[in-house]
Design a protein that fits this description.
single chain, alpha+beta, three-stranded antiparallel sheet, iron ion binding, Cyt_P450
Length: about 525
């Protein structure tokens, strides 16, 4: 075990494959341990994890995305480094995103997020969840075999959050494609810089900027308009960029939790003897299944905190500047808290006390949504099948599964899961959909056509370069591909004058009539 405990959690693919063995090796040294040669603490204890999560006064969430292994962008000085953290906030990976925020900025952003996940709103959207899940599952069952992760989990949760936020139907496939090609958070091979042109956050951010600035000018009866017109707890209004960052985060990170949870849950449904039969007989047990899977194999293995003041955890002195790996997966299997912690127990007492979704101020904002959408789609799988199997040719026999997990120090989720589906006795396939009538081609314009669509059209691109030389290679404008030129005119009035845009429109109109 000594050899195992000295392996590097953040770079070792064998530890990635089975993080639980590494966490148990660490646990042998106590609930809080500093691995040899590392400059961070690893917390595996349930009580200690709760204590740190709840103490937002002394612990900052600033290293939530980059993790505990990376060096800080400054040298901590003194017993309180709060001001140093704030001075360098944008030097941290994703420092201005919700998961990394502290204090008032975090309180404000959470107030916005909480409006998305009220019980009444989720109930209102559940009809869409139910219908969409039903169609997806029935198509999958008719097919007989699918990759649950790529063909069901990721597209389903992406469409759910798109519907909740009001992303236009014509843009939803683009979002699914971007997410499908994106590296997962905490990728062991290194994350792209968030401001890189091709980073999913940058691509989705450009679209959200278009939606948000449109709602500022043209309010509608939808969630984005509510967010734009909303206020923070102190009465101030959010900046449009705050809403854009929220939308980016919900798509780029939040959806991953639900997608991976669905894959992890299906493994237990198939591999625990008699479980799928028990759930079919009593679908009301599905929520209990989800909670126990969250405890045993939640989508988030760990998060991180930075001590911003000299403090204590239990009797341990923790100086300001100490980086901490909070091993959520280990806390949820702490034998001091859970009886028979590594066993699956469907009706485990006090199961909702697990920390799979965090606790206190940084409890996962999307937890209510994750529970609803995973419950709904699992119920559909159980309803429309008489048996579900994991493909042994692809993943090996039960008890000897060979599964590929995402290469991430944050996410615990499968990169694929091939399953075979046997229809239920009363199964009915989806009625074939009539082919939609071809929509008439829209005229190109700086008011209606997104920049990305103009740049994808060779003739329109030539018009832009004629009136705005070099635009097609301008990374800043390219990152606004989801917006129209008129929408971003306010940000570049010297470059995008009304006269130039009118001239562009005249040439675009001639293309439309050519």
């Amino acid at each position: 075990m000594n050899e195992l405990v000295n392996r590097d959690y953040f770079t070792d693919y064998e530890v990635l494959k089975d993080p639980y063995a590494w966490f148990e090796a660490v646990r042998e040294h106590g609930p809080i341990y500093q691995p040899e040669g590392r400059d961070y603490l690893v917390v595996t204890g349930f009580a200690e994890t709760l204590e740190i999560m709840r103490n937002t006064n002394d612990f900052s969430a600033i290293i939530g995305l980059q993790g505990a292994a990376l060096p800080l962008p400054f040298t901590p000085e003194g017993s309180d480094i709060t001001d140093q953290i704030e001075a360098h906030r944008l030097d941290f990976h994703g420092g201005d995103l919700l998961v990394n925020l502290d204090d008032k900025p975090h309180t404000n952003m959470r107030a916005l997020v909480n409006t998305l996940f009220t019980p009444s709103r989720l109930k209102a959207n559940e009809a869409f969840f139910d219908d969409f899940a039903d169609r997806m599952v029935r198509k999958a069952v008719a097919k007989g075999q699918i990759d649950l992760v790529k063909e069901i989990a990721t597209p389903f949760v992406t469409m759910v959050i798109a519907d909740l936020l009001g992303v236009p139907m014509e843009d939803r496939q683009k979002f699914m494609d971007v997410i499908a090609q994106a590296p997962c958070p905490g990728n062991l091979e290194g994350d792209m810089a968030l401001d890189e042109e091709n980073h999913p956050f940058a691509i989705m951010g450009s679209y959200f900027a278009g939606y948000v600035f449109d709602r500022v000018a043209n309010p509608r009866d939808d969630v984005l308009t509510e967010l734009v017109q909303g206020t923070y707890p102190d009465g101030t209004k959010p900046e449009p960029t705050d809403i854009v960052k929220l939308g980016m985060f919900m798509f780029g990170a939040g959806q991953d939790t639900s997608a991976k949870l669905l894959g992890n849950a299906m493994r237990y449904i198939v591999d625990v003897p008699g479980l799928q039969e028990e759930l079919r007989a009593d679908p009301s047990l599905v929520p209990a299944l989800i909670e126990e899977v969250l405890r045993l194999e939640g989508s988030t293995k760990q998060t991180a905190r930075l001590a911003r003041r000299d403090t204590k955890v239990g009797d341990l002195e923790v100086p300001a500047g100490t980086k901490i790996l909070l091993a959520i997966a280990a806390a949820n299997r702490d034998p001091r808290r859970w009886e028979d912690p590594n066993a699956f127990v469907l009706k485990r007492p006090r199961i909702k006390e697990h920390v799979a979704f965090g606790r206190s101020a940084h409890t996962c904002a999307g937890a209510p949504l994750a529970r609803v959408e995973v419950r709904v789609i699992l119920e559909k799988f159980l309803e429309h099948t008489s048996n579900i199997e994991i493909d042994e040719n692809k993943h090996g026999p039960k008890g000897q599964r060979d599964l590929d997990f995402e290469p991430s120090f944050i996410i615990r989720g499968l990169s694929e899961l091939q399953v075979k589906l046997t229809p239920s006795a009363n199964f009915k396939p989806v009625e074939p959909e009539a082919a939609p009538a071809a929509a008439p081609a829209k005229a190109l314009s700086t008011q209606e056509t997104k920049i990305g669509d103009l740049l994808a059209n060779d003739a329109a691109k030539a018009v832009l370069d004629k009136h705005l030389p070099g635009m097609s290679s301008d990374k800043q404008l390219a990152m606004a591909s989801g917006m129209t030129l008129r929408a971003i005119q306010a940000f570049a009035p010297g470059q995008l004058t009304t006269e130039i845009l009118d001239a562009v429109d005249a040439d675009l109109a001639s293309l439309s009539h050519a």
